[in-house]
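Can't paste images in this forum, so I'm doing it all in text. The chain is below; anyone willing to post the predicted C-alpha cells underneath?
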Amino acid sequence: MKNTTIRYFLAPILMCGPLAFGQVCETSVPLGICGPYSYPQVTGSNGSNVNVQNGFWNSANAPAGSSQTMYSFSPGNWWVDANFPLGETEIWTYPDSDAIYLSAPPLLSSFSYLYSSFGENMHLNPNTDAEAAYDIWLNGYANEVMIWNDVSNRGGPNYYGGCTSKLSAQAVFGGERGVPKHLWNLAVCGSELVWQLDQPSLLLCHASAQAQRFSPESVDVGTGSVYGITKGSVDVLAMLKWLITNGYLPSNSSLDQLEYGFEIASTGGVSEKFQVTDWSVTEQPGLP
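Text version of the structure:
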C-alpha cells in the first residue's frame, strides 16, 4: 500500500488459559487495513478474506482538526481513537471489521442461515453523533443495507441520519439460533436501506428484562436520540430475505461484503474511543 504507516508489534493479550502473545496493528492511514486475519469466529475465514479497516473514507473533505487512529488485535478486538469537531452531522468515517465474498459472491438463496453477533462500546459523550452498525453490500456493490444496533444523535428513532426519509415498514426478526426477537423499522434513503431497532418496543423489552432481573443484552436507555443494544446478535439472512420478498432488493441478490463498525460524524471535538469487543459471522455455506 502506498504511503502506508501501518505498524505491527507484539503485546501480551489476556486469554482464557495461558498468557499468549498476539500482533497489534496500529494505523492512522485514512484507508489503512489491518489483516487479513485467519479468524475462526467468521465461518470460512481462510486468512485472506477477513480484515479490519480504519475506514476514514471521507478524509479529504473532513473538517480541520479531524483525526482517527486504529488499533487492532483481531476483527473481534479493536478500537479507534477518533476526534471530529462539535456539531458535525455528515459521516466522515466507517472503521470496521469485514468479510469479503468477492472471489465468488454467493446468492442469498444459497444460504441456509447467516447470522452475526457483536459487542461494542462507543464511550459516548453528550455530543457524540454516530452509530454502531452493519454495512452490507450486494449485487456488485449496487445495493447497500445497513443494520443499526446502537444510535447516538443520528436524528431520532425511525430516521436515517440526515436523510428525510421516515419509517417505511416494520418487521420482527429473531427467535432462532439464539438471536433474540426484536421489532425493526426500515428507513429508505435513496439506494440505501437502513434497519433500525424500534425504540418503544426495545424499551419495553428492557423494562421486562429488568423486572425479571435478567437482561440478555445491554441496552442504552436515554433520550429519544440515544438508544440501542451494545451487545447481541442479528439474523442477517432473514433481514435480507425480507427485503427481497417485499421488493426492496432483486430476487437474485448476491452478497459482496459484510462489515461491522461505526459511522462517525462528530465526537464533540474531543477524543473518543470506539471499540469492538466481539464480532462473529456464522453461516452456511461459509466464505468461498
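The longest helix spans residues 199-211. The helical segments are 199-211, 236-245.
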